Amino acid sequence: MNNAIIRTEKLSKVYDRGFRTVALQEVNLQIPRGSLACIMGPSGHGKSTLLHLLGGLDRPSSGKVWLDEVELTSVAADRLAEIRARKIGFVFQFFNLLPVLTSLENVQVAMMLAGVSKKEQQERAAELLNLVGLGDKLRARPNQLSGGQRQRVAIARALANDPEILLMDEPSGNLDSRAEQELLEQIGQVNDQGKTVVIVTHSESVAAMAQHRIYIRDGQLMGNMDTTGENR
Ligand SMILES: Nc1ncnc2c1ncn2[C@@H]1O[C@H](COP(=O)(O)OP(=O)(O)O)[C@@H](O)[C@H]1O
Ligand SMILES: [Mg+2]
């Protein structure tokens, strides 16, 4: 496939802290530009490990990851941080919001790292929070928000630097069905803007939206296909 935004080659990750865990084993995959892709598979089988490697949050034990023409796995740490801040938005499984900061400040933090002026940070953070329906919660701290609302702050933060790619780790895992429905609509909108979205999920509703599905079992790729069933 020519139009892949992310590509991996024999991507492997071994954790060795007292005992050896092969979390990911020689995974070769491609994610089409602009697609909504999901990563599925049983718990503990390497999905988060894969997502972290795709987003340059962690280094593989061996193998390669390309983001466009850049081999993420070979760039220096500071360059990698810069690419991450500019191109990749990450929504973590438990949101990872800073508890002492307001919604507005949590979103601003992402832009600070990208060197945006304070005034611009505040304006854009407010705009993004409005967009995800939290215009009345700018000054609220995470413990004053529901799970679904925290999720939306995390999404606003991930979108702060207008990334090309949005990576989400089980975003609907802790949401009730109404919050999940809203999340699906937001994901759809983000994808409609042309951003590539990669979601680790167990949810059939999320999977049903996806144009591209990746199945992981025991750290190995079991399938990498678009929804027309064409194997890649
Ligand atoms: N930081 C880590 N240190 C050691 N082992 C880890 C670490 N992260 C994940 N693992 C192990 O790697 C395997 C895959 O984990 P993970 O990628 O989190 O799976 P999933 O997201 O599919 O539930 C598991 O056996 C897990 O215990
Ligand atoms: Mg996980």
From TrEMBL:
Origin superkingdom: Bacteria
Stored SMART domains: AAA
This protein's name: ABC transporter ATP-binding protein
SUPFAM superfamilies: P-loop containing nucleoside triphosphate hydrolases (SSF52540)
Organism of origin: Geothermobacter hydrogeniphilus
Family recorded in the similarity comment: Belongs to the ABC transporter superfamily. Macrolide exporter (TC 3.A.1.122) family.
A cellular component term, taken from the record's GO annotations: membrane protein complex
Molecular functions per Gene Ontology: ATP binding; ATP hydrolysis activity; transmembrane transporter activity
Biological classification of the source: Bacteria, Pseudomonadati, Thermodesulfobacteriota, Desulfuromonadia, Desulfuromonadales
Matching PROSITE patterns: ABC_TRANSPORTER_1, ABC_TRANSPORTER_2
